[in-house]
Amino acid sequence: MQIKLTLNGKPVSEEIAADLLLLDFVRAHGCASVKRGCETANCGLCTVLMDGKPVLSCSMLAARAAGHEITTLEGMGAEAEELAAFIADQGAEQCGFCNPGFMMNTIALLRENPTPSDDEIRAYLAGNLCRCSGYEGQLRGVRAFVAWRAQKGRCAE
Ligand code: FES
Ligand code: FES
């Protein structure tokens, strides 16, 4: 079947198998940040944004993305680079395998709610599993990023 969609800002038109997963589609297009973890919608490693909202690409057919805008970490630009620096600064990135999915959900959260509480951060990121950390480093990193953005916003006023 033929699908057309936007991937990281670029139009893509392609003939695909009807059972192709979105995970395999984006990885075949060089989006190696999107990881294959549990494949059962439980770990968050395969998170991408569809029209700005997080979806689990291991549990979605590429065909369902037709007509939509798909964004992976490769398409996030400066926003992702800035957040990554705060996460790394807190020592939260150990093996790093969980990090892209974690970042995609964090960015989605901050677009919905720019100043989340700790409980709101924990709730939104509950679907992102990390086998290395106790999640405290990630929480500190997100908290520090939120505070830095608020400060930056005040300086710009
Ligand atoms: S690989 Fe998709 S949720 Fe784990
Ligand atoms: S840092 Fe290793 S899985 Fe999260």
What would you say this structure looks like, in words?
The protein has 157 residues and is of the alpha+beta class. The chain folds into 2 domains: 73 residues, Ubiquitin-like (UB roll) (Roll), CATH 3.10.20; 80 residues, DNA polymerase, domain 1. It has 5 helices and 5 strands. It has a 5-stranded mixed sheet, with helices on one face. β3 and β4 form a beta hairpin. α2 crosses α5. The radius of gyration is 16 Å and the shape is globular. The N and C termini lie far apart (51 Å). One FE2/S2 (inorganic) cluster (FES) binds next to loops.
Features:
5-stranded mixed beta sheet, 157 residues, Ubiquitin-like (UB roll), 15% strand, binds FE2/S2 (inorganic) cluster
Q: Write down the domain tally.
A: 2
Question: What is the typical, i.e. mean, pLDDT?
Answer: 94
Share in helix = 25-40%
Order of helices and strands: EEHEEEHHHH
Tally of alpha and pi helices: 5
CATH topology of the largest domain: DNA polymerase, domain 1
Compute the separation of the termini in Å: 51 Å
Structural class call reads alpha+beta
How many runs of DSSP E, i.e. beta strands? 5
Give the second-level CATH assignment, the architecture of the largest domain. Orthogonal Bundle
Q: Write the CATH homologous superfamily of the largest domain.
A: [2Fe-2S]-binding domain
